[in-house]
From TrEMBL:
<dbReference type="InterPro" id="IPR029063">
    <property type="entry name" value="SAM-dependent_MTases_sf"/>
</dbReference>
<protein>
    <recommendedName>
        <fullName>Methyltransferase type 12 domain-containing protein</fullName>
    </recommendedName>
</protein>
<feature type="domain" description="Methyltransferase type 12">
    <location>
        <begin position="52"/>
        <end position="146"/>
    </location>
</feature>
<dbReference type="InterPro" id="IPR013217">
    <property type="entry name" value="Methyltransf_12"/>
</dbReference>
<dbReference type="Pfam" id="PF08242">
    <property type="entry name" value="Methyltransf_12"/>
</dbReference>
């Protein structure tokens, strides 16, 4: 999707509604995926874990990490929306092991380190070439590390007939093909 359109979508007017909207979205569309993400974090995060999040938005996933019993080593959240990041930063102040950086995730070449866990949820469908980002992402996973992705994929045709135009118009997102290679 067009980068400018996506940036406009997550500018202030929409950023401030994102968290309440996401609660409804989770209920209607993604209960199972969000539960699986929580279970993944529960299983894989410990005191030594470094976490990279691509397209962290308002840091709802970091809230999930903080809800766990265990601690973590560090978290870096990347997003290109100033307004989404502003909300994220205000949720987590004075925490030296939590960092947010304004960055377009279509170029990850300058991230000079590897992470134990990479999270990327509801972002790939916004990108023109999602497979390129997945390829770059793989290079940033430490040898025994793991990635967890949630994305909008193509549903059955009779749902897609109305969902695709709606998603394109409202969310500037398009479903990923199930058969697209990374
Ligand atoms: C639907 S939100 C998802 C936020 C968060 N991952 C979540 O699950 O709540 C999509 C986020 O991806 C960010 N985004 C989209 N394309 C991006 C890009 N090329 N570089 C950085 N961030 C991007 C948007 O700014 C927005 O915050």
């Amino acid at each position: 999707m067009n980068r400018k359109n996506v940036q406009n979508l997550y500018a202030l007017g929409h950023a401030q509604w994102y968290d309440p909207f996401k609660k409804v979205w989770n209920r209607l569309v993604s209960t199972k995926a969000e539960k699986e993400l929580a279970a993944f974090l529960e299983k894989n995060v410990n005191n030594n874990t470094s976490i990279l999040e691509l397209g962290c938005g308002t840091a709802l996933n970091l809230e999930k990490v903080f809800a766990l019993d265990s601690n973590f080593k560090k978290y870096l959240g990347l997003d290109f929306s100033t307004d989404m990041l502003e909300i994220a930063k205000n949720k987590f102040v004075n925490l030296p092991h939590v960092k947010f950086q304004q960055k377009d995730i279509t170029n990850l070449n300058d991230i000079g380190e590897k992470f134990d866990i990479i999270i990327c949820t509801w972002v790939l469908s916004h990108l023109q070439s999602p497979s390129q980002i997945v390829n770059q992402m793989q290079k940033l996973i430490s040898p025994r590390g793991k990635a967890f992705l949630i994305f909008f994929s193509r549903p059955k045709w009779f749902i897609n007939v109305w969902l695709y135009p709606l998603a394109k118009y409202l969310f500037k997102a398009k479903p990923l093909s199930r058969y697209r290679s990374a």
